[in-house]
């Protein structure tokens, strides 16, 4: 199809595409449309804008081989841009079809926004990481639970010959208790350290679940810190503390029990809570100032919170339980208390971290 190049002069409207008089390849010269013809067709308002923008450019006017005047008016105007590499190539910078729409009308620009494929990719990566993290946590719980259950049930494995399942289940609790008492005689400090380490790990897990985390999406580092404090400090210190308490109050009267409870819930609770918060802060790599501020903020609230739980438990601790067995009873109650301790400690740490991040963002925005 032949085309005629013409330069649109300034202050003129879009040139019309005249209807060919014959089927020959000759094309009549374009004429200007009168303003009255534009007013009858609302689409020409947008065409006029396009024509004004490209009035100084060169056009290819391509005749439409149709007898319908509407088809001729809906012709294709392509801006010719001189491209490097050859003359006469159609430019890619501006292509406008005059069919009632502007050059950019109907197109949605997504510049400045992340692509949908990027969002999907990030979401998939997060799902994979969450699934992997959950699988690791579930494996830890499964391995630890299987090991503990196996040790408890196989305590009499050397004597199982001829035993029934009923006999194994019946004698397992009694023989486990005898094995625990034997461990207290041979290595009491290490036995109590193991018990406290397990209790503090499980207590922190319960605390995280109580805070709203799913069962297998717990923070392993946080649980490890709590268990390490229980293993390294609580078991050993409690062993020596209960012996010290008996030497400090060697009396046998009924009144000595409330005295021991009062001493426990003032001096010993203040010391142990301070040790717990300080060591956990050190394991989190907190600065000394942050550790001191956290300790100062939680000291009295935690001390008074203990008065709602421990006095009733310690009436049994100092009134009924023998000295060597006290830590086991206390660690059973510690499952509740560690939940409170861990919750208080990590709430303060998370609140401080969030406030620091907000301050950092505000400082960055001001700069």
TrEMBL record:
Keyword set, alphabetical order: Membrane, Transmembrane, Transmembrane helix
Places the protein is found: Membrane
Claim: Transcription is one of the keywords in the record: no
Membrane topology of this protein: Multi-pass membrane protein
Domain of life: Eukaryota
Positions of region (Disordered): 1-39
Cellular component terms per the entry's GO annotation: cytoplasm; membrane
Main subcellular localisation: membrane
Pfam families with a match to the protein in the record: Mpv17_PMP22 (PF04117)
Family assignment from sequence similarity: Belongs to the peroxisomal membrane protein PXMP2/4 family.
Name assigned to this protein: Peroxisomal membrane 22 kDa (Mpv17/PMP22) family protein
Organism field: Medicago truncatula
Designated gene of the protein: 25487391
């Amino acid at each position: 199809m032949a085309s005629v190049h013409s330069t649109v002069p300034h202050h003129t409207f879009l040139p019309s595409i005249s209807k060919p008089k014959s089927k020959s390849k000759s094309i009549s010269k374009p004429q200007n449309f009168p303003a009255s013809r534009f007013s009858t067709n609302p689409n020409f308002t947008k065409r006029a804008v396009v024509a004004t923008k490209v009035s100084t450019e060169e056009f290819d006017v391509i005749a439409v081989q149709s007898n319908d005047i509407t088809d001729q008016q809906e012709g294709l105007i392509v801006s010719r841009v001189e491209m490097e590499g050859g003359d006469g190539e159609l430019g890619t910078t501006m292509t406008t079809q005059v069919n009632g729409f502007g050059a950019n009308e109907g197109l949605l620009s997504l510049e400045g926004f992340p692509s949908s494929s990027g969002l999907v990719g990030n979401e998939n990566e997060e799902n994979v990481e969450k699934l992997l993290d959950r699988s690791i946590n579930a494996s830890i719980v499964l391995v630890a639970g299987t090991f503990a259950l196996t040790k408890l049930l196989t305590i009499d494995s050397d004597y199982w010959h001829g035993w029934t399942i009923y006999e194994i289940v019946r004698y397992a609790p009694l023989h486990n208790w005898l094995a625990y008492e034997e461990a207290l005689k041979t290595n009491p400090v290490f036995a109590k350290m193991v018990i406290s380490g397990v209790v503090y790990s499980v207590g922190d897990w319960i605390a995280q679940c109580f805070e709203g985390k799913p069962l297998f999406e717990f923070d392993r580092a946080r649980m490890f810190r709590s268990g390490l404090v229980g293993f390294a400090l609580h078991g050993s210190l409690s062993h020596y503390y209960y012996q010290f308490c008996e030497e400090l109050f060697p009396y046998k009267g009924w009144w000595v029990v409330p005295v021991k409870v009062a001493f426990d819930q003032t001096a010993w609770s203040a010391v142990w809570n301070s040790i717990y918060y300080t060591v956990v802060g050190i394991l989190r790599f907190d600065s000394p100032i942050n550790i001191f501020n956290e300790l100062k903020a939680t000291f009295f609230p935690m001390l008074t919170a203990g008065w709602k739980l421990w006095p009733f438990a310690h009436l049994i601790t100092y009134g009924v339980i023998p000295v060597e067995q006290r830590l086991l009873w206390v660690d059973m109650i510690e499952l509740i208390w560690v939940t409170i301790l861990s919750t208080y400690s990590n709430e303060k740490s998370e609140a401080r971290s969030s406030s620091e991040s907000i301050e950092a963002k505000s400082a960055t925005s001001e700069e």
